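In the previous lecture we treated proteins in isolation. Real proteins rarely work alone, and many bind small molecules. This record shows how such a complex is specified: first the sequence, then the SMILES for magnesium ion.
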Amino acid sequence: MSWLKKLTSGLKKSSDAVTASLSGISGLFGKPKIDAGSIEELEEALITADLGVRAATDIADSLRSRKWSGPVDADQLRAALAESLTEILADAEAPLEISAARPHVILLAGVNGSGKTTTAGKLAARYAGQGKKVILAAADTFRAAAIEQLDRWGARSGVEVVAGERGGDAAALAYQALEKAQREQADILIIDTAGRLQNRAELMEELAKIIRVLGKLDAEAPHDRVLVLDGTVGQNALAQLRIFQEIAGVTGLIITKLDGSAKGGVVVALAREFGLPLHLVGVGEAAEDLQDFNARDYARALVGLDPA
Ligand SMILES: Nc1nc2c(ncn2[C@@H]2O[C@H](COP(=O)(O)OP(=O)(O)O)[C@@H](O)[C@H]2O)c(=O)[nH]1
Ligand SMILES: [Mg+2]
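The predicted 3D structure, ligand included, written as C-alpha cells:
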C-alpha cells in the first residue's frame, strides 16, 4: 500500500469522527449559504473531534467568509474544510533537517509507550538507508526490554547501538555515545530516553542531565529535542507537550499511531496552539510507516478525501 493510502486508511476513524459530527448539523447542506447557527454547531463539532478551540474558530471564520458557487453539498464542505485545515497545518510542516554538525544529535523524549524506541529505530533505518553513518544510544536504561528492542532495530538496519547496564546512568550513557559518535565521525546520533512521567521530578532531572552532559562535548547538542506523542491520546497530548516543553525545551514533534486512532484531529490542535515543527507522523509499526508530515495530505485524509 502506498504511503498516502496508508495515511488515508489509517486516519479513517479520525475522518469519521470529523465528518460524522458534521452530518448531524441541520441547515448545513442544500442552501447556497451556510447559516450562522450551523456554523456555530460545526465549530462545536470540530472541537469535539479534537481540533481545539483556536483551529475550530479559524475554520468557522473562513467558512463564514466563503463564497459558495451554489447550494452547499457534503463534497464542497469537505473540500473547503481541507483547504482551511491545510492552511493551519502548513505552518507546522517542517521535515527534520540534519545540520552540518557531525554528529547531528537527535534526542527523543516522551512518555512511556508513546513510540520513542520504535521511532528511534525507524529513523535509524531511514538514515542508514540513505548511506549515513548512524549510531543509536539506548538511554532508556530503566527497562531491559527497551535496550533489547533498540538492539533489534539496530541489527535490522546495520546500525550500532550503544547500550549499558540496566539501571545505569542515562546521562553517562548518552555522553559515551556522543563521544563515540564524534570519534567515529558519525553523521547522526539518535538518543532514545525513558519516559516515566509518573515520577516527574526524576524524569525532569534525568532529561536535563542528559542535555547538560551532551553540551559539554558539543555546545549545540542535542540539535533536535523531539517530543514523540501518541496520536491516540487526544487532548492529553497537549498537556504532555506543555510538561516536556518545560523540562527539555522541545524543538519539534513526531506523532505516532495515527493508524487506527480516532483522535487524529489533535494534530491540528497541536499545530495551531503551539506552532512547533511537526517533523514526522507514524501510521504503523514498520520502518517505512514513519514519513515526513505533509499538511495538504494530512488535511485531505482527515476529512476523508482521497489522496490527490
Ligand atoms: N500501530 C502503530 N504502533 C506503533 C507506532 N509507533 C509505535 N507503535 C507501537 O507502540 C508500542 C510502544 O512503542 P515504543 O516505541 O516501545 O514506545 P516507548 O515506550 O515510547 O519507547 C509498540 O508496540 C510499538 O510497536 C505507529 O505509528 N503505529
Ligand atoms: Mg522505549
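Summary for your notes: The mean pLDDT is 93. The longest strand covers residues 224-230.
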